[in-house]
Amino acid sequence: MIYVGAENIVAPLGLSASEAFSRILNQESSVQLHTGLTPEDKAVPASVFSDEQRGEIQKGEQRFISDLAVYAIQHALRQVDGDLLNDPKTLLIVSTTKGDVDRVAEEPQHARLGDLAMDIAHQLGFQGTTEVISNACISGILSVITAADLLATGRFKHAIVCGVDLVTRFTVSGFDSFYAIAPDSCRPYAADREGIALGEGAGVVVLSVENIFRTSPFQYLGGACANDANHISGPSRTGEGLFRAVKRCLAYAGLLPTAIDQISAHGTATRYNDDMESIAFNRAELGSTPLHSLKGYTGHTLGAAGLIELAATMQSARNGVVPASWGSSPGGTTEPLAVNCENTTLATRHFMKTASGFGGCNAAAIFRYDH
């Protein structure tokens, strides 16, 4: 059995999982218009840390992105018993898509993702095995699946999984070149959706083969990934990759689609992604399952998205409420989805977290919560 707990979120929405989830329940978005992020200096929607939040997180002269990850991990570890950082059976996985990419012109050595991971480990005083997973926007959930697979081999007993990414001119310009950024806000699954808003932050979960958690943990039941190889940036029009990941995930967990109480979906608010998800979920007989996207609150945090959204959905199960998808409205996708448009009381036992990304990658994982 693999336990999952000690979830943490450090984002503009809130500097802890409980604070961020409280703001989600209050339907407060941290996405605002910002300038200075594109060559044309046009205003784009994004969720970025305030100066006050940065001052709380950054304590020294280190890079902000590594300080952010360290802050998130240290606060998560307060929720477990034992010194995981000095346990040789602990694995550290850092999930990121871009790392400190804006430094590549001046300090290329600091742009290497492996160096970022080692910097985080050094600040933590961690001497064990450190890995980096960077696979577009499924990086966070893929990191959880990879951690669980490695724990199952017996090589490790614990895994600290942290996803971290920042809003930078590089990433904003890249998405803007695809005409994928919304002019004002992010409205997943809505008929009038116009694109994504980017966000930054860190998400952390701890996995263990032992119940070392100070609050009731979740159980990891299985995960899978699949690639539809459709296009470098466009998802499969039939939802093939996500459909296969979801079906394999259900098979590994030994569950029927009817056992899933809620889905934390990707929901980027781009036309093609949301339609693809609607097709894939209906093919997998999950079209009527309560579903939400949190990107209207946080923006798309790339390599941190899967972990921030997983942590928020764990908070959802703990609190017995499925959050509303900010900016969403029903009936906006090719196939019908049970998009949650208002906070709904629900005792969640099984939930699924999914993610999709550039290059046709897709991932899904299932978790159980015994109340």
Q: How is the biggest beta sheet arranged?
A: 10 strands, mixed
Strand content: 15-25%
Order of SSEs: EHEEHHEHEHEHEEEHEHEHHEEEE
State the secondary-structure class.
alpha/beta
The CATH topology of the largest domain is given as Peroxisomal Thiolase, Chain A, domain 1
What is the topology, as strand order, of the major beta sheet? 5-4-6-8-1-9-15-14-10-11
Query: What assembly state would you assign to the polypeptide chains in this entry?
Result: single chain
Tally the structural domains.
Answer: 2
Give unreliable regions as ranges. Answer: none
Helix content: 25-40%
The backbone outline, from C-alpha atoms, is globular
Whole-number mean pLDDT: 95
Cα-atom Rg, whole angstroms?
A: 19 Å
Number of helices: 10
Number of separate strands: 15
CATH class value of the largest domain: Alpha Beta
End-to-end span in angstroms?
17 Å
CATH homologous superfamily placement of the largest domain: Thiolase/Chalcone synthase
Can you name the CATH architecture of the largest domain?
Answer: 3-Layer(aba) Sandwich
Structure description:
With 371 residues, this protein is α/β, with parallel strands linked by helices. The chain folds into two domains: 3-208, Peroxisomal Thiolase, Chain A, domain 1; 218-368, Thiolase/Chalcone synthase (Peroxisomal Thiolase, Chain A, domain 1, 3-Layer(aba) Sandwich). 30% of the residues lie in helices and 21% in strands. A ten-stranded mixed sheet has the order 5-4-6-8-1-9-15-14-10-11, with helices on both faces. A three-stranded mixed sheet has the order 2-3-7. The chain has a two-stranded antiparallel ribbon with strand order 12-13. A hairpin with a 3-residue loop joins β14 (350-357) and β15. The radius of gyration is 19 Å and the shape is globular. The protein starts with a strand and ends with a strand.
